[in-house]
Design a protein that fits this description.
The protein is an alpha/beta fold. It is 42% helix and 16% strand. The structure holds 5'-O-(N-(L-cysteinyl)-sulfamoyl)adenosine and zinc ion (ZN).
Length: 409
C-alpha cells in the first residue's frame, strides 16, 4: 500500500558513528554492523483506531535509528506492515456498524498523516496483510512441508516442539511464556492442541468472517506469520534489525523468529532485536483496549505544533516506560521556542563540537536526553551572546536538530 511522504534530510558535514543498541535476544549492548544498506523491519499498527502517543514513540525510535544509520553513511531499507485484518479490527468494525475495510482504510490514512506531521521517515515498503495473503499462505505451506504443523478443526497450528531454539528472542521460562501468550492474543487453553504454546498459523473460514482461498485452505492468516512472511519477502532472513514495542517480544517476535528459522535452515530471523518501552497515561500502559489514549491526530486537531510533540517524546530513553502528560508538552514547547530563537541569531558558538557530541550520544543506544542537553547548552550560550561568534553555527545547529533528531526549527 501507499507509504507516506518523506521529509527532506539535510546531509551533515563528515560522517556519524556506528550505532550501538540494546539487543533483546542477547540482552547486551551491541554495535550494529549493517552492510551498505541496513535492513529493518518494524511492526506496524492494527488500524482499528487512531495512533496514540505510544505508537508514535515506537515509530520515533526507529526513525532515529534510520537517521543515525544514514548519517553513518548507510542506505536504509525499511519495511513496516499494517495488520489490516485481525480480530480486533473485525470487532471494532462490527461495534461501529461499518465495513472493516473502510475502518482500516480510514485509520491507516490518519496514521500516514500523523507520521508525516511528526516528520517520521516512511518505510520503503508499507505492506498490508490483505494485499499479502498469497505470500503469507505460501509461507504457511512451506512450514507445513517442513513438518512443523498440524491441523485442528481445519485450523493450522505451528507445533512449538518443532522449534528447538524457541526462547532465543525473549529468554523467558515456560510459565512466563504461557502467561503472556494468554494475555496477548494466544489461545493456550484451546482443546486439542498438542502443546499449550502451539500457535495459529492459518484460521479456517468461520461464518460471517472474511476469508480467502489459498493452497492451505480457505481462511485467513494468524498474526505472527504475517510479519515473518512480509519481512522474508521484502528483506530476506537475517536482516539487521527487527523492532517494535516491548509488548511484542513475546509471543509475537519469538513465534515469528521460529517460523523464519523453520523455513530458512539455521540463520536467525534478524541480527538484532530492539524493543521500545511502553508509554502510559494515568498509571497504565496506553492501549486501545484500555481506552486511556492520547491521539497524535487529537493533538494535531488542537493545533499543537508537531515538532513540540516530537520534542515531548524525545527526552525519554527508548527502553524506559514513561507517562504522557501535558507538562511534557509545555516543557517541549518552551524548548522549541528557545532553540528556534537561538538558531535565528546571526551568530553563535562554534557548533562543530556540538555535532560530534550529538552524534556520539545518539550512536550510544539512542541517548536522546544527552543529545537534547547538548543542544540546550549551545542554545543557552548563543542566546547569552558569549563565546566565539561563528556566523555559520546557527544554520549548522538547525541542520543537526533536523537531520539527527527530526526536529525542524
Ligand atoms: N499490528 C501489530 C504488530 S504486527 C501491533 O502490535 N499493532 S498495535 O497497533 O497494537 O501496535 C503498533 C506498534 O506500537 C507495535 O510496535 C507496538 O509494540 C507499539 N505499541 C503499542 N502500544 C504502545 C505503547 N503504549 N507504548 C509504546 N509502543 C506501543
Ligand atoms: Zn508484527
Amino acid at each position: 500500500m501507499r507509504s507516506w511522504s518523506a521529509p527532506d534530510i539535510v546531509r551533515l558535514p563528515g560522517s556519524g558513528n556506528p550505532l550501538r543498541i540494546h539487543d533483546t535476544a542477547t540482552t547486551t549492548l551491541r554495535t550494529t554492523t549493517p552492510g551498505p544498506t541496513a535492513r529493518m523491519y518494524v511492526c506496524g499498527i492494527t488500524p482499528y483506531d487512531a495512533a496514540h502517543l505510544g505508537h508514535a514513540f515506537t515509530y520515533l525510535t526507529f526513525d532515529l535509528v534510520t537517521r543515525v544509520w544514514r548519517d553513518a553513511g548507510h542506505d536504509v531499507d525499511y519495511v513496516q506492515n499494517t495488520t489490516d485484518i485481525d480480530d480486533p479490527l473485525l470487532e471494532r468494525a462490527q461495534a461501529n456498524g461499518e465495513d472493516w475495510r473502510a475502518l482500516a482504510e480510514r485509520e491507516i490514512q490518519v496514521f500516514r498523516d500523523d507520521m508525516a506531521a511528526l516528520r517520521i521517515l516512511p518505510p520503503r515498503a508499507f505492506v498490508g496483510v490483505v494485499e499479502s495473503i498469497d505470500l503469507i499462505a505460501e509461507l504457511v505451506a512451506k512450514i507445513r512441508e517442513a513438518g512443523a504443523t498440524y491441523e485442528l478443526d481445519g485450523d493450522i497450528y505451528f507445533a512449538v516442539e518443532s522449534a528447538p531454539r524457541f526462547g532465543e528472542v525473549s529468554g523467558l521460562d515456560r510459565a512466563e511464556m504461557l502467561r503472556l501468550f494468554a494475555e496477548r492474543g494466544g489461545d493456550p487453553k484451546r482443546e486439542g492442541k498438542k502443546d499449550a504454546l502451539d500457535w495459529l498459523l492459518w484460521r479456517a473460514e468461520r461464518p460471517g468472517e472474511p476469508a480467502w482461498d489459498s493452497p492451505v485452505g480457505r481462511g485467513r492468516p494468524g498474526w505472527h506469520v504475517e510479519c515473518s512472511a512480509i519481512s522474508l519477502n521484502e528483506l530476506g532472513a537475517g536482516f539487521d534489525l527487527n523492532g517494535g514495542g516491548n509488548d511484542l517480544i513475546f509471543p509475537h517476535h519469538e513465534m515469528g523468529a521460529a517460523e523464519t528459522r523453520c523455513v530458512t535452515g539455521t540463520g536467525p530471523h534478524a541480527q538484532n532485536y530492539m524493543h521500545v518501552g511502553m508509554v502510559g497515561l494515568d498509571g497504565e500502559k496506553m492501549s486501545k483496549s484500555l481506552g486511556n489514549l492520547v491521539f497524535v491526530s487529537g493533538l494535531r486537531e488542537r493545533g499543537v505544533d508537531p515538532m513540540a510533540v516530537r520534542l515531548a517524546m524525545l527526552p525519554h530513553h527508548y527502553r524506559d516506560a514513561w507517562e504522557w502528560s501535558d507538562a511534557l508538552l509545555t516543557a517541549a514547547t518552551e524548548r522549541l521556542e528557545r532553540w528556534r530563537a537561538a538558531v535565528s541569531l546571526a551568530a553563535g558558538p562554534d557548533a562543530a563540537p556540538l555535532l560530534q557530541r550529538v552524534r556520539a550520544a545518539l550512536a550510544d543506544d539512542l541517548d536522546t536526553a544527552t543529545a537534547l542537553g547538548e543542544i540546550d547548552a549551545w542554545a543557552a550560550a548563543a542566546l547569552a551572546g558569549g563565546g566565539d561568534e561563528d556566523t555559520a553555527a546557527p544554520a549548522l545547529v538547525a541542520d543537526i536538530a533536523d537531520a539527527l533528531l527530526g526536529v525542524r526549527l
